[in-house]
Design brief:
Number of helices: 21
Helix content: 40-55%
Structural class: alpha+beta
Largest sheet: 4 strands, antiparallel
Number of strands: 17
Length: about 600
């Protein structure tokens, strides 16, 4: 038991376990979201490297981490801890079925003797070495403490210490695979002297340029035609650009149950009736226990503490108020405060607090409003739309994914999301109750499957892309014809009704170049000095330009080139796991269930 109590004192153990999967490959959640797509079986939490992960298997893994949290913290009930446990359980499966298998396929192994050395040997893993639980009297890591812990594991009949130790060993093993794979990847990144020199030269060379721009027109040109065949060809060659998560386009109306005027009046009357009793009560603990939503607190409040409860109470208590405050009404809550003891910067205060709740009659009234809409909709989108118009109810449009649980200011509304994903377009719902306070009636307009969006959904987007390219090419041809025979940029600018602009220090990596059209920058880098070049069809306009000079500096050094290589390697390291997940078509469907 002493060891278990000590474990709870070192919550860092669990934080290390949870953070392990991010070790060297620190992942951006948005990268994961882009990487883990598509849907497997309706009742699977996901699929990893071809292996389906059932809800039951995943739940068992989460429960293991919940037991660890209870051992470390004494609880696993908070939503934040639950989220961490789910993330840790999922990452463990990613490591087990994907990363470690790939590392082993690359020839990497972590043997028994190596594991012994990393746990109770001379070269402990940082997972153990950085854990305060294994620190000696001088604060440094002590292998003797590890041995003592292992001995305690054998003596613990509850099995809880064994669970912790097994998880530690698993973490050490996983980290070692990450370290070795990262070392293999890092060692493969190499730039010889010629590559380094070229990098230095390219980054030290900038161009000074004069240019004329003819802006593109935003007016529709009926002579520019994008054919269905061109759209289909672009779609075929850019499939990855049209990957999407599963989503639903829905309409919904929501009826929030709020107290009626009558409810407010009755609650206020009752609060006022009890106010005198509150002001005179000798046993405040008993009074608050019977009548208040906020119970008695022995601790003193300090200046600023009461603002989060009610600013008026804060003002009363810390600005000379004595005895019992007036009644304050904020939102749907009634307050009164009674100062028991006070000094310069703190006070002991009893707070009488009561939320005004909707009566059964009011609740039924809102339910009947929602039921009327649901009845008129009769399970169909068309019926929903007609009912909304006829009744005059405000209906909202929203595109949701399987993780959506917030609708406007309403949170924890996952029931609406689940309904939308379980029903087909054209369907309307019955009443969906959320938090016993909100009644939703929803309808599905469109359903978008996870994976590559079908051509029909993206054809208009592709058409706009191809139209813009063709419009720029046509404008470039027109400019070329207009400036034929002109030999100076000034003459060209006059012909086009514009002026000559200048930009110094143009380079791919130059901050001063960021406000230029990328296509112009690319053309400048390859243009011959002193020669009028163009027209170049850009993203914002058509350009005719001349490089007036190039300068070679020395601000980009060999150290800069080496640091650039290190940054590229670091970025590549962070992308290893997302790339593995993409290649293995990992599917993370946890949003369906949690």
């Amino acid at each position: 038991m002493a060891v278990l109590e000590k474990l709870r004192g070192w919550g860092i153990v669990l934080s290390i376990l949870v953070a392990l999967p991010l070790l060297l490959f620190i992942l951006d959640p948005s990268q994961i979201a882009q990487t883990v797509q598509s849907v497997s079986s309706k009742y699977d939490v996901g699929k990893i490297n071809g292996k389906s992960v059932s809800y039951t298997d995943f739940h068992e893994n989460v429960e293991k981490y919940n037991r660890l949290a209870e051992i470390m913290y004494g609880t696993s009930s908070s939503e934040e801890i639950q989220r961490q446990m789910r993330d840790a359980a999922w990452q463990e499966l990613i490591d087990k079925y994907l990363f470690i298998e790939n590392a082993q396929a690359a020839g990497i192994r972590v043997g028994k003797e190596e594991m012994r050395d990393l746990t109770i040997g001379e070269n402990p893993s940082y997972i153990l070495a950085s854990n305060p639980m294994f620190a000696g009297e001088n604060g440094a890591f002590s292998s003797d403490r590890v041995v003592e812990f292992v001995q305690a594991v054998d003596e613990d009949e509850t099995g809880r210490l064994a669970l912790v130790w097994d998880n530690m060993k698993q973490s050490v093993n996983t980290v070692r695979y990450y370290e070795k794979y990262n070392a293999l990847f890092t060692a493969s990144a190499f730039a010889n002297s010629l590559m380094t020199q070229r990098n230095i030269e390219e980054n030290n060379t900038t161009a000074n340029v004069e240019f004329v721009m003819a802006p593109l027109s935003y007016a529709n040109d009926s002579t520019i035609v994008v054919s269905p065949a061109e759209i289909k060809s672009y779609y075929k060659n850019h499939q990855k650009s049209f990957r999407q998560k599963a989503s639903r386009e829905i309409e919904y109306a929501v009826f929030q149950v709020v107290p009626s005027r009558k409810d407010v009046e009755e609650a206020s009357d009752e609060f006022t009736r009890l106010y005198d009793e509150f002001a005179a009560a000798e046993n405040l603990r008993a009074f608050l226990q019977r009548n208040s939503d906020r119970q008695w607190q022995e601790e003193f409040y300090h200046k600023g503490d009461l603002k989060v409860i009610n600013p008026d109470i804060e003002d009363f208590v810390f600005n000379g108020g004595k005895g019992t405050s007036p009644i304050y009404h904020s939102g749907n809550v009634l307050y009164a405060a009674r100062v028991i003891k006070s000094n310069a910067d703190s006070a002991q205060v009893a707070i009488f607090e009561k939320e005004i709740l909707a009566s059964k009659e009011t609740f039924n009234d809102y339910y009947n409003q929602a039921n009327r809409l649901a009845t008129l909709a009769a399970g169909k989108l068309s019926g929903y739309e007609a009912a909304v118009d006829s009744i005059g109810i405000y209906s909202r449009n929203l595109t949701i994914n399987e993780g959506t649980d917030t609708y406007g200011s309403i949170s924890r509304a996952k029931e609406v999301t689940r309904w939308a994903f379980d029903n087909k377009p054209g369907t309307a719902s019955g009443i969906i109750t959320v938090e016993n306070t909100y009644f939703f009636v929803a309808a599905v307009k469109e359903a978008h499957k996870e994976g590559v969006a079908p051509l029909s959904e993206v054809s208009e987007r592709i058409k706009n892309i191809l139209y813009a390219e063709k419009a720029a090419e046509k404008k470039a041809a027109e400019v070329k014809a207009e400036i034929e025979g002109l030999e100076t940029l000034e003459a060209i600018a006059e012909k086009l009704g514009t002026s000559v602009s200048t930009q110094d220090g143009v380079a791919f990596g130059s901050m001063s170049s960021r406000n230029l059209d990328p296509k112009l920058i690319g053309a400048v880098s390859a243009a011959q000095e002193g020669v009028i070049t163009g027209p170049v069809a850009g993203s914002y306009g058509v350009y005719v330009f001349k490089v007036t000079g190039r300068e070679t500096g020395s601000y980009y050094t060999e150290d800069d080139a080496k640091n650039s290589l290190k940054q590229a390697v670091a970025y590549g390291s962070r992308m290893i796991l997302p790339v593995m997940m993409d290649d293995a078509d990992v599917k993370d469907n946890r949003e369906r269930f949690f």
